[in-house]
Amino acid sequence: MKNFVVRKKISLKATPEEVWSALTNPEKTKKYFFNCEVFSDWEVGSTILFTGRMFLIRKIELKGQILKYEPNKLLKYTLMNEGADEESGNFSTVTDELTYKDGKTILSITDNVGPAKGAEERYERSLKGWDTILKGLKKVVEAP
Q: What is the CATH number of the domain that holds 57?
């Protein structure tokens, strides 16, 4: 079975702390993550929840678990696809990795949507979704 993994990278004119804040602050995620706020206590093993309304119409609630958490450097978490459970294998593992070089933060995103049924469709949606998210994130962290 094939694993489907989305890999994206973006250079941001911001410090790792500013980018980290945009990744973990619900008021900021709402501005670029399909109108969703993120909630967690940011401890390994804890729940992460993205909740909101896509296009202000469709209710979204994506839930997962924090796997790794290193402030300003690394955030890794699972994210259940709507209507899925862990036994189905129908979840993504997302890794956000930050590096700082020459006054810019490089954010590398890996989204492993796994091999479960429908993975290819989720992979295609994820490719487009991350492009939209990263474009919005760039506007949030580089805003004057």
A: 3.30.530.20
> pLDDT tens across 116-142, in order?
788 888 899 999 999 999 999 999 999
Q: How many separate domains does the chain show?
A: 1
Say how far residue 73 (Cα) sits from the centre of its chain. Answer: 14
CA-CA distance, 139 to 79, in Å (whole number)?
A: 24
Closest CA to 22 of 102, 93, 109: 109
CA distance from start to end of the chain: 46
List CB contacts of 57: < 8 A, sequence separation 6 or more.
none
> What does the alpha-carbon distance between residue 88 and residue 97 come to, in Å, rounded to a whole number?
27
| pTM for the predicted model, two decimal places | 0.90
Residue 23 CB-density burial (10 A; 0-12 exposed, 13-18 middle, 19+ buried): buried
